[in-house]
Design brief:
6-stranded antiparallel barrel; 4-stranded antiparallel β-sheet; 32% strand; alpha+beta; single chain
């Protein structure tokens, strides 16, 4: 086994331990408050200094944009007279986090929307970034960075801390005395456990499970003068989430992540010289070294480990799991990335 494979096996073992040893986690680590969210901002700007790698000189969009920009500084030039290939029209995007205020800096993504060959080495001129309501909440400017690992794509880059927030987005997470805790991974069992934990810590308040992803919590009247402190106590409470019933497969890296509750029902698997049966005897003679019978509702981890033990490659195991899921014998959810 080479070093890369050994590291992959070690990673899978660590993940398996993390999955099967379900820890006590804080409420804040598996949920968020409704109303506390990021906001998407966009803007159209100009990147300069591209040494002939920018948009073509016949680009009407570039000609009009550069002409308008120069006019803003008192330089009046007809769009038809602009022949530069050193500029590019770009889309600038960012996500404005909650609770940021004027003066805070946020990263931005810059991508070409014209026919520029590369944005490498270019500088984004000051660009207004607005939300869906057309209000400007930030401005962006700075040198565009193209990561070396992304060398085949030169028309998308980033500017670290390239945007300055100009206007705060008001975050409303209180509805009177009610806050709504939203699970990042909706689950009825976990939602009910969260409700029980909160009631154990605060027995005199009202807690309502709305659905698999939402639990409404009433802030005590005597804590309304400092709701932040109450929310901090609430989010610090711990519980044991329900274990995952999913099998997640990354086909590109051939990584398989298995939840503890995923079982396999009665099924027979045949691949080349290998015959495997779950929950029933194999047809024919007694078992041979290439024939295996597993107990009914065996977990997927044991199933995968046995396939690996007899030399089945990961890409084939992925195909077998897909086929088992299609046959209806996989008691869980299969997610292929």
């Amino acid at each position: 086994m080479n070093c890369k494979k050994a590291l992959l096996v070690l990673l899978l073992l660590v993940i398996a331990v993390m999955v099967y040893s379900v820890p006590q986690v804080r409420i804040k680590d598996i949920s968020y408050l409704k109303g506390v969210r990021d906001n998407q901002l966009t803007g159209i700007g100009i990147v300069t200094g591209l040494t002939g790698k920018g948009d073509s000189s016949s680009s009407v969009m570039l000609q009009e944009s550069v002409s308008n920009m120069l006019a803003h500084f008192g330089v009046n030039i007809s769009p038809d007279d602009i022949k530069s290939k050193n500029c590019a029209i770009v889309m600038v995007t960012m996500e404005l986090p909650s609770f940021v205020g004027p003066g805070d800096r946020v990263d931005v993504i810059v991508s070409s929307i014209g026919d520029a060959r590369s944005l490498e080495g270019g500088v984004l001129l000051q660009t207004n970034l607005q939300a869906a309501n057309s209000r400007v909440y930030a401005v962006a400017q700075g040198k565009v960075f193209i990561p070396t690992r992304n060398s085949t794509v030169k028309t998308v880059g980033s500017i670290a801390s390239g945007a300055i927030v100009e206007q705060e987005v008001l975050t409303r997470y209180l509805n009177g005395r009610i806050i709504e805790v939203v699970l990042r991974n909706p689950d009825f069992v976990t939602a009910d456990k969260l409700k029980s934990v909160v009631l154990s810590a605060f027995p005199d308040i009202s807690v309502l499970t709305n659905h698999a992803a939402s639990v409404s919590v009433e802030i005590p009247q005597d804590r309304m003068n400092d709701p932040v402190a109450f929310i901090a106590e609430l989010e610090a409470l711990t519980l044991e989430p329900d274990v995952s019933g999913k099998v997640v497969i990354d086909s590109e890296t051939e990584v398989i992540i298995v939840g503890e509750n995923v079982k396999i029902g009665k099924v027979a698997v045949s691949y080349k010289q290998i015959d495997m049966s779950v929950g029933s005897s194999l047809l024919g003679d007694e078992e041979t070294p290439e024939q295996f019978v597993l107990d009914e509702t065996v977990n997927v981890e044991d199933f995968v480990n046995l396939l690996k033990k007899v030399g089945v490659k990961t890409d084939v195991i992925i195909g077998i799991l897909k086929a088992v899921e299609r046959s209806g014998a996989l008691y869980g959810s299969l997610i292929v990335m």
